[in-house]
Structures are given as structure tokens and as C-alpha cells.
């Protein structure tokens, strides 16, 4: 057979690292698809398309038209809709598919976690008394804070929150990880944070805030992940590469 064609649904550091590894091998054709939610995405090592597909059926049509051999869902663990679309498209087309999902963070003995199922539930869990909240869930869910205006919020995101929230006490930080433990401790102290709302995204890039909360004795309201889709999941780039080698042994993709 010829060179395998692989579509990666990306937007994570793992997607970038996988694309880099495949580009270095140079034995397959890779397209990396980004949703376009970040205004200035990082430079990628393979060809990139930006924007949605228009739904699960449209993604299936794209896979067929491009004659892809493998679909890799390496989106954010909380990008639930695109992951559902990917599972549907793979099943509909019969194309091989895997999901690259970094492991969840695990609670350690000194962590003060309260687990909830959604950002609205996390806002409600803050209670009625005013608190200093580090809302570290990105700009997509920041508007839920308007349901509890009695609190003071610190909101960090890669891009600005638009429109700004209708809140009396809110500060914004525009920044992109990785973040250091020292920097996160300083940020929490500066804003007198007494509770953090975070998604259980896993990975090292944003884990420092969880370490800082543990060190400073700060409560974390942790938004749990939704159930994993029906697509076979792997937890590392190395595991994804092993699956690719199994599906397309090197002797098969030398470009006859």
C-alpha cells in the first residue's frame, strides 16, 4: 500500500508532539486539524487546517473524501462534542480511530478537592459567602461565574474573555502554560485566592496550580471528565505511535 493518510484532531501539546514524531518519520501523510478557538495557535510541524467540520456527518464526509486511513482524536479531554463527532465518524466510515488522552490528575493525601460534574456545579459549590476564586477553566466557561456575582474572580485564559463578564470584582490574566510552582504560588498569594476551580485536564503544563493549592492549603473544586468515548484510548504519544506501527507496519508504507 502507499503512504498512510492520518487526520489528527488537535489543540493539545500531545497532538503537537505526535505530529512532530510522525513528521520526523516521514512515512505517512499527516493533516492536523485545529478548532480555531485560540487566536494565535503555535506553529505546527505538519500541514494544518483550522476550523470545525460542521458536525459528525460532515467529518465523516471529510474522512471519505480525503481517503484517510486513520483518525486520531488528540483534542482536549473536555472537548466532548468533537470527541463524540470523531467516534461517530469513525464508526460510520469504518476508518480506524484512536483517542490520545493524557491521564487524569490523581488526588494526593494533602489535596483538598471537591469533585463536581460541570463548571456551573463548581460555581454553585462556592456557596453564598463571598470568596476569592481562581477560575482556571479557560475562557469558554468563564461566563458561568456571572451566576454568583458575590465572589471576587481571577480568570486566566490564553485569549481574552469576550465580552468581559458582567461582574463587579474580576481580574483577568492572559497567559499560556507551562506554569511554574513558584509562579503559581505567587499568583495565588497576590490575589488572596482561597478556592480554585479547575478541570481535571491532566498533564504537566497546568499542574503547578494544583501543586500550589496543596502547598498553600487551598481548596480545589475539580470538574471531572465526562465518560470516555467508545474510541480506543491510549495515554501517551509513545502508545499512539505503537498503535500506528501495528496498523501500518513499516514494510507496508514505503510508498510502492
UniProtKB/TrEMBL annotation:
A biological process from GO: cobalamin biosynthetic process
E.C. designation(s): 1.3.1.106
PROSITE patterns per the UniProt record, alphabetical? COBK_CBIJ (PS51014)
* Pfam families recorded: CbiJ
GO terms assigned for molecular function:
precorrin-6A reductase activity
- The answer to keyword Oxidoreductase applying to this record is yes
UniProt keyword annotations, A-Z: Cobalamin biosynthesis, Oxidoreductase
At the top level of its lineage, which domain of life is listed?
Answer: Bacteria
The pathway is: Cofactor biosynthesis; adenosylcobalamin biosynthesis
UniProt xrefs under NCBIfam families: precor6x_red, PRK08057.1-2
Kindly provide the name given to this protein in its UniProt entry.
Cobalt-precorrin-6A reductase
Which organism is this protein's natural source? Rhizobium vallis
